[in-house]
Design a protein that fits this description.
mainly alpha; 116 residues; 6 helices
């Protein structure tokens, strides 16, 4: 089982705020604070600790004996590819209203030339 220190270290390594980790693990931020306190692992249920560990591992942490490190680079390369794909989709979506705004100038102005 992971320790409170490993949870704090993983969160710092990944630059994840307590609130964000709580959302990822589907628990409250207060539970994250309790878990990260001295001997916090004993103060929360084992299932909760497993959910926090799962969330941190999905974010890129790898728990090792008495420590934590980033997952090896080959997994990060795939994440970079996925990020690049997402950015292409986002740029395409952002440009779409410029190409086809869904309305014309006639929709904006009345017959008298004033905004309708």
């Amino acid at each position: 089982m992971i320790t409170s220190e490993q949870v704090r270290a993983a969160r710092a390594l990944l630059r994840i705020e307590q609130d964000d980790l709580a959302r990822r693990a589907h628990i409250s931020a207060a539970t994250i604070r309790r878990l990260e306190a001295f001997n916090g692992v004993q103060r929360v249920s084992p299932g909760t600790v497993k959910e926090v560990q799962r969330a941190l591992e999905e974010a890129g942490a790898e728990f090792i004996d008495d420590g934590v490190r980033r997952r090896p680079a080959r997994d990060r390369a795939r994440a970079d590819e996925l990020f690049a794909d997402i950015m292409v989709i986002a740029r395409h979506g952002a440009a779409r209203p410029v190409i086809d705004p869904g309305f014309s100038e006639a929709d904006l102005y009345g017959d008298d030339g004033l905004p309708s």
